[in-house]
Write a structure and sequence with these properties.
Layout: E1 4-5, H1 14-30, E2 35-40, E3 44-49, H2 59-66, H3 71-74, H4 85-97, H5 105-113, E4 114-119, E5 126-128, H6 142-152, H7 155-163, E6 170-171, E7 198-199, H8 201-210, E8 216-219, E9 222-225, E10 228-231, E11 234-242, H9 248-255, H10 266-272, E12 274-287, E13 290-295, E14 299-300
Helix pairs in contact: 1-8, 2-7, 4-5, 6-8, 7-8
């Protein structure tokens, strides 16, 4: 297939999957004809096609220049999105003021973060996206991580993430979306906590840019996140793999199918063009204030 084959991204890894969608979203802002599909050899890997004057060598630098997260507006929320309804409403309103028909980045991130109409019980703060795994515990902050990554990530980080085997040689600055980080003490010889986290900065930067494809929305007073369902006692994230090249808008619709969060039949998946579906549990590891949230390794449906 003609196009750019992102051989470093494994579709069975939620962090790599979000990274692929981040690439699609960023490129779509500059190249409306861009499409994303998946091909399988030993694993599912994405292929980018359509209307680009890019190749594998020039892609990482171009993506750096296309990063769209509005860091100036994030200042209204400080380090995390665990803010009051009043603060978030102000952020959402200013996001709308900074948008246009062609540049929707700010309000898209606002809808991905949460909603001012849903408040946590007994706490003066909003309910927020199920993708927010870090809220200040262990000095890990959601928006502060975005800002730090923006300042340190260069094209070389993206090149390794997109085209090479991941080495996890970057220290910290992770959103904890990689199941590799679900290091549960009960399953290990020693306590993994003091070791800290080794991550892929490039993957985390691109994955954050994919979040607007998974907006949140209120349902009977509670906030839900696209792609997630509650299956006692865990939240679970489900994502599809497809082989037909799709635009960013088509992907936005596909990942939002409510049927994916149930028990989709093979007949339904085939009719929708979905070749494979993965599901991963969102788990809380540790107790008290010293806890971590991670994805466990996914399973194929």
């Amino acid at each position: 297939m003609n196009g750019i084959h992102l051989t470093g991204l494994n579709g069975a890894n939620p962090l790599a999957y979000l990274s692929a969608l981040g690439v699609l979203r960023l490129l779509s802002n500059a190249y409306p004809d861009v499409r994303l599909s998946w091909t399988r050899s030993d694993q599912w890997t994405p292929v980018i096609t359509g209307g680009m004057d890019l190749d594998g060598n020039s892609l990482p630098e171009r993506l750096i220049n296309l990063f769209s997260a509005p860091l100036d507006l994030f200042e209204l929320l400080d380090k995390n999105i665990t803010v009051s309804q009043k603060v978030f409403q102000s952020f959402a309103e200013q996001s709308l003021e900074n948008s246009s028909a062609r540049a929707r980045s700010a309000p898209d991130f606002a809808s991905a973060f949460g909603s001012e109409v849903c408040k946590q019980e007994k706490l003066d703060r909003i309910q927020y996206t199920s993708f927010c795994f870090i809220t200040g515990s262990g000095h890990q902050n959601f928006l502060e991580t975005v800002k730090t990554l923006r300042s340190v990530v260069v094209a070389a980080h993206l090149k390794e993430t997109l085209f090479q085997q991941w080495t996890y040689r970057d220290k910290g600055q992770s959103f904890r979306w990689d199941p590799f980080e679900a290091r549960e003490y009960a399953l290990r010889w020693n306590d993994p906590g003091p070791e800290g986290v080794w991550s892929q900065w490039g993957a985390n930067s691109l994955a954050f840019e994919g979040l607007p494809l998974f907006p949140t929305y209120p349902v009977q007073g509670k906030l839900e996140t696209t792609g997630f369902r509650y299956s006692k006692p865990f939240l679970e994230f489900t994502w599809p793999i497809w082989e037909t090249p799709l635009s960013c808008d088509s992907v936005r619709s596909l990942v939002g199918l409510k049927e994916l969060c149930k028990e989709p039949s093979r007949e339904f998946l085939t009719a929708t063009g979905i070749t494979e579906t993965y599901r991963a549990q969102r788990v809380r590891i540790g107790s008290g204030a010293n806890f971590k949230v991670s994805f466990r390794p996914p399973r194929s449906l």
